[in-house]
Amino acid sequence: MSAQVQQLKIMLELQDAMNTKVTANWQQQGYEWYRAIWVECAELMDHYGWKWWKKQSPDTEQVALELIDIWHFGLSILLQSDASRDDIIARLQRELVIATDETDFRLDLEKFVAATLGDRQFHIGLFARLMAGVDMSFDQLYRGYVGKNVLNFFRQDHGYKDGSYRKHWHDGREDNEHLVEAVLSLDATKVEFKDELYRALAARYQQ
Which Pfam family is an annotated match for this chain, by its short name (predicted)? Predict the structure, then answer.
């Protein structure tokens, strides 16, 4: 099994597990994942900048975070279909071609939104063009996705729902900052990456 196939498999497993944690039979609920995608796209556009009446420069770091959020919803759409996991992985490998011939990122974003609203599906190829538009690699997508997912699980396991969770840790920094450091300190190509990341967060939280 190639590293990319393994990583796609892990992401699909994580997404299913997180959705199940929120709603046990989530696949039967008919949630409007497409709506979550286009709302995220509007937020993404704000981070990129579109107002001609004021000076704006793209906040590509925030754009990348929004793309990772969109990926969560996109995977949910794919998992909700009748396709098998192997078929979804094969399709992702085939269609996630990170390249674009569009010089204006905002036009690619609008094409993606129009397609999403048109059939309420996840357009993998158009999403890959957005990744290319902010120089985002598959490795960055994977690290960012697994990091966000593991942090969500960690928060749930440590009292996020009842309010006992501490978002600021021992050194006064937010959990997101610790997450970034922990992700960069680990080998994302290892199958154990998500488990090692969870343990690294636990060690930092308990200090």
Answer: dUTPase_2
